[in-house]
Amino acid sequence: MPVAVVIDSTAYLPSELVQAHRLTVVPLTVVLNGAEGLEGVETQPADATLALSARRVTATTSRPAPEQFARTYRRLLDDGADGIVSVHISAALSGTVEAARLAAADLDGRVEVVDSRSAGMGLGFPAIAAATAAEAGADLAAVRDAALAAIARTTVWFYVDTLEFLRRGGRINAAEALVGTALSVKPIMHMPDGAIVLREKVRTASRGVARLVDLAVEAADGDDVDLGVHHLAAPQRAEALRAALTERFGDRLHDTYVSEAGAVVAAHAGPGLACVVVHRRPEG
């Protein structure tokens, strides 16, 4: 393709989509009890889930180094790409966008870095939109604009069994102020501006799944949609969510992608996560 598309490992795209759209993935690093591993390469979701089940576990994450992005960009350009659109996890959650921009600064405008203001398929859908535009022969600016348009049409809702892991990782300052010390509640979260914000609290996991479905339908605003469903060590919960969404959307639902979130999200959300990502399809 004239324009290559780069993502990071927090997109949690099914491998067949990565291959079909010729996406290049740069992994983040997960540190579990002092042991470092590249997400999706050396550290898998089960590794993080097992570690987090221990009481005194330490789990942290770190962005790719700018040089890691620079090597990736140079390789793609050397292989014939005219330009690169690099789409990444929200800058409010990670320094990945900053690292990508530092690397891009030395490449004479041939790399456009896009902050997805999200994670999971909230980053995946914009990447797919960018890759689809690139496959159709769009230039660098048009491929970037395709990603930005998809971001504007994508909404993320998720449920966690406890706020404890988000609190430990410092990812819920605003939400923590709302719930105080009541970490036993079942929260529904969203990412309106790239940061994690508490939407409401529910009493049970089943109610959490039901609310995710309601909120997804509300976010669709009557449009046809594609959906992403993520989970962490909760495949049955994800299947219940997928089935309920399929029933509620009916003919308005086109593609649904179900995948387990990776070790980076596991470190901050904990087991039991259920997430729905709504991408409203453009008219026509």
Automatic annotation (TrEMBL):
Pfam families with a match to the protein in the record: DegV (PF02645)
InterPro entries named in the record: DegV (IPR003797), DegV_C (IPR043168), DegV_domain_contain (IPR050270)
Organism domain of life: Bacteria
PROSITE patterns: DEGV
Signal peptide: none
Protein known as: Fatty acid-binding protein DegV
Gene Ontology MF, one: lipid binding
Taxon lineage: Bacteria, Bacillati, Actinomycetota, Actinomycetes, Micromonosporales
Keyword annotations from UniProtKB, A to Z: Lipid-binding
